[in-house]
Specification:
Structural class: alpha/beta
Mean pLDDT: 96
Strand content: 15-25%
Number of helices: 15
Shape: globular
Strand order of the largest sheet: 3-2-1-4-5-6-7
Radius of gyration: 21 Å
Number of domains: 2
CATH class of the largest domain: Alpha Beta
Length: 355
Amino acid sequence: MKRVAYVINYIVKNGPSSVVLNLINNLDRSEYDISLITLFEGNNAEVVSALRNNGVTVYECSTLSRMKCLLGQSKEFSDIVDKGHFDILHTHGIIPDVLSSRLHTAAKRITTIHNNMYEDYLDSYGYAKSRIFIALHLAALKKLDVCVCCSRSVYDVMKRRLPNASFIRNGIKPVQAHSVITRAEVDVPEDACVFLYAGVLNSRKNIVWLIDNFVQYHEGDEYLLVLGKGEKEAECKAKADDHVRMLGFQTDPIAYMNISDVYVSASKSEGFSISVLEALSCGLGLFLSDIPSHREVVEMGQDVYLGETFSQDDFEIKLKALRERKTNKAEIRAFQEKELSAKEMTKRYESSYLN
């Protein structure tokens, strides 16, 4: 039996955590003994409890800080790895990758690269700091055995810099809501075409521009639900008209996807968005910014119409194209389950673990 440990800053229900959770839930337990190592505060207690009840050993580090880790002060983590005798160490994120790269271990060291660091770090940290973090992260990645990019588009960026790079697209299990929301509850007509955005309201997500353009070009039966909070919330509310519903942060976004028709995002950078995969699982069509990872998923629908991508210049034209072609919820759900499932993703990772 192989001993595998997943390493992440903290475990929650979304983002990179969802990839980790899907891997844990789909690995063959007769072949793998599974551990999870979290480095910092921020764990979702419900998730940790569920993992432990499912036979996963969870180590919650309590003495580490991000700065200490970057400066090489990570004894608590090193001790866990030494005592765990792991065969596979699978890291997620810059600090887990840096720590893994410094270990003297016989374990196979694998990472998942969840974003295009050249875009993401620049937006998050500014030019000067992003150069430092990119150099630090690349140096760590080159010391690992396998670097798995979460999409072909991220791989296309990283393969020139990392000879150990490959790609496995993110996948999810079919999603289910924990509650029922009706259109009446959000003051939207039953026969409306409902667009939905779920995520942070910040500059990288380009949400103010999205609302501005939706307000300019929507038809009378089209509405936009905006789920999330962030630094751009006040600007979003100022741009919204009576066809935009600002609903704030919601713990059950799937319930809102279930009353929607189209998932929309104007994001400037993504790795391979989990929210997009969840939208597909709910049968939603896609109306996405024309960035590499968005093009990648839309173009996968060779036999199924998944939607459109738009640029800064053709939002209105692409919106008209989406209206004309229509999407089919049953076909989209079937596409996601076949092409972008958690089981398929896990099979490919298992191959990386064993080869």
